[in-house]
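Pilot study result, target chain (279 residues):
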Amino acid sequence: MQFTKMEGLGNDYIYVDGFRETVSEASALAVAMSDLHFGVGADGLILILPSDAADARMVMYNADGSRAQMCGNGIRCVAKYVHDRGIARKKTLTIETDAGLKQLDVFTADGVVDRVRVDMGHPEFERAKIPMSGPAGHVIREVLHAGDVTLRVTAVNMGNPHCVSFVDDVDDFDVAGVGRSVETHASFPERVNAEFVEVIDRTHLKMRVWERGSGETLACGTGACAATVAGVLTELSDRAVTVHLLGGDLDVEWREGDDVVLMTGPAREVFTGEWPDAC
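Predicted structure:
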């Protein structure tokens, strides 16, 4: 089975072209291929499939085999693959995801895509739509006890669930320990992605992320969008910011008027290969 390794800011996935390959037992395949020592090594597996509603369909699995609705870094790489491989060589693409249809604008250099802007849609704040247990309403700077740490959290759904905490020094923060506690907290019945964000100024945020099913990753596109929205809701940042992640920078805007979130960042192909044990 042929595969392509791609990354957006170091958030790396293994991509399989479902226009040419047939994959069964995708969850088990994601676990095997994502393993750093015995597989390819990645944050998960993404299938690029035909779609009746869009230029292609994206189906993604985390490194632990769990299925995720959406990935901002992952979908930029899907757009690059679809454009560069000639599946749909257009400036504006539509990709079907488990979180709905997404529109993406691609920017090329020397004939190949190097940056992509994604229309991430509207954020959801209602507690039941995160989902998060508790009374109806929005979750803004709500107290959450995660292990031995008490956080003030803001919950946002950007196609998948996020729990954002603003901290004084993200470099020294125990992302692994606290992130694991937040991900599996009883308040989140479907688990949650945990973002820890330091405000540099009103247009610059510094973020580390613990992704459900993958652990700490170098970047998270939906998480950067959730952090931007949370920054506005808590009056800590403007609507257009640069989010600095371990793997690089994303430009995010929560647009006034239509409340759409736009995310722009790089997409890069790392290598192609052949997996010997196709499932």
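One observation from the pilot: The chain has a mean pLDDT of 96. A full batch analysis is planned for the follow-on phase.
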